[in-house]
Amino acid sequence: MRYKTFIFFLIVFVSFLANSQNLVQKELKRNTVFVEFGGNGILYSVNYNRLFYLSKKLCLSSRIGYGFTKNFNDNKLILNVIPVELTGLVPISKNKHFIEVGSGVTTVLMNYLDKFHKELILVLALRIGYRFQKPTGGLFFNVGFTPLYDFYVYNGDPNIGYHLWQPYAGMSIGYTF
């Protein structure tokens, strides 16, 4: 029931933003390279982002990234993380402040060195947040709420609970060109 309520409020919020009077007046620089802490990359990830214009009121942002952590959890776990995301951007002020609403899938490959055990986990990542990006490029910043749900687990550890929603957040900083 909570899932249906969340989806309902998300649709209402996106509808409100779609009727915004703010317009994307100037073309924004389309390419961004950034580091995200938390968020879809779980711990951190290095990402490439590309913007696509759908209308004067809406841009679409696609991204792909990679995160690698060795010697995690007392030198016994290696994480490889690949976040992929599609996000809608709606301007809220002066063509450099945006609301982001989107979702993606993060692939997590976990290698337990002490157990000779590997897991593959696919994580659904939702996003609602704020994005700062100047039309002329330069500094990029965003912060958002990114709840995560591990919807597919291959070769999972039976001592760990799976298929749970995890409230999560992330922050990114980078360069737009």
Based on the model shown, name its key terms.
Porin; elongated; 8-stranded antiparallel beta barrel; 12% helix; 177 residues; mainly beta; 2 helices; 60% strand
Shape label: elongated
* CATH topology descriptor: Porin
The secondary-structure element order is HEEEHEEEEEEE
Query: Percent of residues in beta strands?
Result: over 45%
Task: Draw up the topology in text.
Blueprint: H1 2-18, E1 31-38, E2 44-53, E3 59-71, H2 72-75, E4 77-93, E5 97-112, E6 117-133, E7 138-145, E8 148-154, E9 165-166, E10 169-176
Antiparallel strand pairs: 1-2, 1-10, 2-3, 3-4, 4-5, 5-6, 6-7, 6-8, 7-10, 8-9
Can you describe this structure?
The chain has 177 residues and is mainly beta. The protein has one domain (2-176): Porin (Beta Barrel). It is 12% helix and 60% strand. It is built from two helices and ten strands, in the order αβββαβββββββ. An eight-stranded antiparallel barrel has the order 1-2-3-4-5-6-7-10. A hairpin with a 4-residue loop joins β6 (117-133) and β7 (138-145). The radius of gyration is 18 Å and the shape is elongated. The termini are far apart. The model is unreliable at 19-23 (pLDDT under 50).
Quick overview:
With 177 residues, the protein is mainly β.
